[in-house]
Amino acid sequence: MFNHVVNSLVNPPPLFLIPIKDFSATKTRMRAMVPLHDVQYIEKLAKITFLNIIQVLQESMLSYGIISPSVQIISHSKALGAKFVYQDLGEGLNDALNETFKNSSLQIPIVIMMADLPFITGEFLSNFLNSINDNDLLIIPSISADGTKIGTAILYIRTPTLIKFQFGHNSWYKFRKEAISKNLKVQVLHQDPFARDLDTLSDLKYLKHHLGMVHHPQPFIELLEQLC
User: Fold this and answer.
1) How many other C-beta atoms lie within 10 A of the C-beta of residue 11?
2) What's the confidence (pLDDT) of residue 6?
3) Cβ distance 23 to 81 under 8 Å?
4) I need a surface site. Which of 34, 38, 144, 169 has the fewest CB within 10 A?
5) What is the pLDDT of residues 91-136, one digit of tens each?
6) How many CB atoms lie within 10 A of CB 46?
7) Contacts of 97 (CB under 8 A, 6+ apart)
8) Beta carbons of 42 and 34 less than 8 angstroms apart
């Protein structure tokens, strides 16, 4: 269905890397906003969103890898066809990435994609990869429903050691600033709704009212009824 994604790229396409905590440890902000008996739905939401991204990558015939401290997630990802897996120590996203590239031989173009992006589609991936051109970095800032998010949803790097990993508050500004200081070619793309993530109940309400833009909406429908 999405063969055009691969066919439109310079070979080889980058490896998509998805870092993810154990589902029971994700979405701490959202957990604090719901009653205790609804926390189980937060975990299910994290899993559904993660698997939705993998399904879109598979349908687009793109290679992906998983970085996680969870043995279960690593094992399941292998069974699903992940081309690369790394079990990190669970000490935070930036530490996990630094640890991964220090202890592996990955020196290829990579795309670091957050695991909580429900609006990712094959068409978006095609347009994104066609935008890489000869950039050293391509940055897509994250978007939240309340307009306060200024992190990074997706980051393309020509080689993993070009810059320091600084995911978190203001990260896309930091990535761009460092790239400019090193005379790297960098581009920032603002991509709505594809860069919308799931951190708050406002994000869930936005998702609920825009399910028509989700490539595989069915798994989200019943769950969102429970949460918002």
Assistant:
1) 6
2) 52
3) no
4) 169
5) 999 999 999 998 888 889 999 999 999 999 999 999 999 999 889 9
6) 22
7) 19, 67, 112, 160, 165, 167
8) yes
